[in-house]
């Protein structure tokens, strides 16, 4: 990866990397391990098992280690993908996350896992830098962190189509949840907040 970022920088460009872990988003890949917050029945015979609680800190640690590798490789910006039914978004979604422990239920509980991932990412990055308007990373400064969250019901419709289930609650982030998540991200040293507005979810 360092060879790639060096080549980009040599041409005057900036390099960013996106960190993600698939859940329903990779369900079309038969070789993929589908990790979701809670049990999801696919048919009368098949249920995708929910993520055991002991796996949560393992995944959080993996995000931190990935961020560290990105920093060492010279990336100028790190984006945390919390949209499109990837695992962090699946936890945040009240339509997908049906856990009954401290990682499910209220918005604060559902946001717990993605926020833990963000803190792990930030802990493995240099101290936050002030982001300039026209550059992702000012010369010699530390890389900023960005977070991507959904703002439409498209992802929920796709999830329902995959499973044959109709969900009573959307997986997209309502305006109030978006605003609250933005406040949470500011306290976790996240410089860029992306609230997507699209039919793609």
Structure summary:
The chain is α/β, with parallel strands linked by helices and 201 residues long. The chain is 35% helix and 11% strand.
How would you describe the overall organization of this protein?
The protein has 201 residues and is of the alpha/beta class. It has helices at 2-10, 56-72, 87-92, 107-110, 112-123, 154-163, 175-187, and strands at 16-19, 40-41, 47-48, 77-81, 145-149, 192-195. It has a four-stranded parallel β-sheet, covered by helices on one side. Helix 2 packs parallel to helix 5 (112-123). The longest helix is centred in the N-terminal third of the chain and has 17 residues, at 56-72. The protein is globular, with a radius of gyration of 17 Å. Mean pLDDT is 75; it is low at 128-141, 152-170 and 192-201.
Give the secondary structure arrangement, pairings included:
Elements: H1 2-10, E1 16-19, E2 40-41, E3 47-48, H2 56-72, E4 77-81, H3 87-92, H4 107-110, H5 112-123, E5 145-149, H6 154-163, H7 175-187, E6 192-195
Strand numbers in spatial order across the main sheet: 1-4-5-6
**Main sheet, how many strands, which sense, barrel?**
4 strands, parallel
For the secondary structure, the number of strands is 6
Which residues sit in consecutive blocks of at least 5 with pLDDT less than 50? 128-141, 152-170, 192-201
Nearest-angstrom radius of gyration?
Answer: 17 Å
Instruction: Encode the helix/strand succession as letters.
Output: HEEEHEHHHEHHE
Treating each run of at least 4 consecutive H or I residues as one helix, how many helices?
7
Terminal CA distance reads 30 Å
Q: Could you say which structural class the secondary elements and strand pairing correspond to?
A: alpha/beta
Q: Work out the helicity level.
A: 25-40%
Task: Indicate the overall shape.
Answer: globular
Question: Which strand-content bin applies to the residues?
Answer: 5-15%
For the residues shown, what is the average pLDDT?
A: 75
């Amino acid at each position: 990866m360092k060879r790639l970022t060096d080549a980009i920088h040599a041409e005057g460009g900036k390099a960013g990397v996106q960190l993600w872990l698939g859940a329903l988003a990779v369900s079309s890949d038969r070789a993929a391990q589908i990790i979701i917050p809670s049990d999801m029945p696919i048919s009368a015979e098949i249920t995708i098992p929910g993520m055991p609680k002991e796996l949560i800190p393992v995944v959080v640690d993996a995000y931190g280690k990935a961020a560290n590798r990105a920093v060492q490789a010279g990336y100028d910006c790190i984006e945390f993908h919390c949209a499109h039914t990837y695992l962090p978004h699946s936890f945040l979604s009240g339509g997908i996350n049906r856990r009954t422990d401290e990682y499910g239920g209220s918005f604060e509980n559902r946001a717990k896992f993605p926020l833990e991932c963000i803190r792990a990412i930030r802990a493995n990055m240099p101290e936050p830098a002030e982001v300039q308007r026209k550059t992702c990373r000012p010369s010699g400064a530390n890389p900023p962190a960005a977070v991507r969250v959904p703002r439409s019901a498209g992802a929920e419709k796709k999830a329902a189509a995959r499973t044959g289930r109709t969900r009573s609650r959307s997986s997209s982030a309502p305006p109030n949840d978006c605003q609250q998540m933005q406040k949470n991200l500011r306290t976790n040293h996240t410089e860029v907040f992306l609230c997507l507005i699209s039919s793609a979810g």
